[in-house]
Write a structure and sequence with these properties.
The chain has ten helices and ten strands. By secondary structure, the chain is of the alpha/beta class. Strands 1, 2, 3, 4, 5, 6, 7, 8, 9 and 10 form a ten-stranded mixed sheet that branches.
Length: 296
């Protein structure tokens, strides 16, 4: 019924907890765990191999003799996923609710108009031993609210989902969509899933995202964050040309203008972004406001 997809590289500190989170799931249906181990330089491979030997009926381990990279590793895992539903969790995150899969599959089974559903999570910073809430509290002021519909507008306005919280219909996402993008990330997958059907966000907290210096994006510098999200949002808009992707690109441009003119102190880059922003939205009022930001 469910394929649990996990990609891992140099997650020696985290991977056992991730796998234990998969194994503790209590469901009325069968599931399979597919792990792509990308030639780690630490003990990650040894750990996943031990689990695979203990649970051969549950774990399908994919390995290679070279490092293939995150996108190839993810694709080879997803190609092995034959379940009606796909659940995703990277090797440095983990699930905390033993009924997570049951809740999400039950919902999708009884709501065919929905292509994907998510739940809340917490962020943990191992290097500082800090916990931080997700960005979803604004949607659940009342404990009686079990969940809400998630739109593309909400998705783009504030990051309120994480891959570790996602369960979606296998048929709702074409893996070849990833090949259309040079800078493919999970944002593309979630966006296209929301185009394929409705999205739902549960109020329950079902997992933990570890934000650490060795993570894919968790501890990037501000400049790296700006440059990366600019590239991703621009390509997403170019490929789709929808109102939502345009608004998202506008918002990212505006945020980066503030950062480059402020904390990053790069007026030259700021000028370029101000011009791009004006060409996109053609607002002289906004151009004036951004120009004042440049000279302030």
């Amino acid at each position: 019924m469910v394929s649990i997809c996990c990609i891992t590289y140099n997650h020696e500190t985290f991977i056992a907890k991730a796998i234990e989170g998969f194994l503790m799931q209590q469901t009325s249906f069968p599931f399979k765990i597919i792990i792509g181990e990308d030639y780690s330089t630490d003990r990650t491979r040894d750990i996943v191999q031990k689990y695979a030997r203990r649970h051969p009926e549950l774990i399908n381990l994919i390995i290679s003799d070279t490092n293939v990279g995150i996108l190839v590793n993810e694709r080879r895992v997803m190609l092995e996923a034959k379940g009606k539903y796909i659940a995703f969790c990277e090797g440095d995150d983990y699930w905390t609710d033993p009924f997570k899969l049951q809740k999400q599959v039950d919902f999708l089974e009884t709501h065919p108009e929905y292509s994907v559903c998510f739940h809340r999570w917490r962020n943990f910073y191992p290097e500082s031993n800090e916990w931080k809430e997700d960005n979803c509290g604004q949607f659940f002021p009342d404990e009686a609210i079990e969940g809400i519909e998630l739109t593309t507008e909400m998705f783009f306005s504030k990051w309120i989902t994480q891959p570790l919280t996602m369960v979606y219909r296998n048929k709702s996402f074409d893996l070849d969509i990833a090949l259309q993008y040079r800078y493919y990330r999970d944002i593309h997958q979630i966006y296209h899933l929301l185009l394929a059907g409705k999205g739902y966000l549960f109020a329950f907290e079902g997992g933990v995202r570890n934000v650490h210096s060795q993570g894919i994006a968790g501890m990037k510098s501000l400049k790296e964050q700006c440059d990366s999200i600019l590239t991703i949002s621009h390509e997403l808009y170019k490929k789709n040309h929808t109102a939502d992707t345009k608004k998202y690109y506008e918002d990212i441009l505006q945020w980066c203008i503030y950062e480059y003119c402020g904390r990053l102190k790069s007026k030259r880059k700021g000028v370029l972004l101000v011009l791009k922003h004006f060409i996109l939205i053609k607002s002289f009022r906004r151009l004036g406001a951004n120009s004042k930001r440049l000279i302030s």
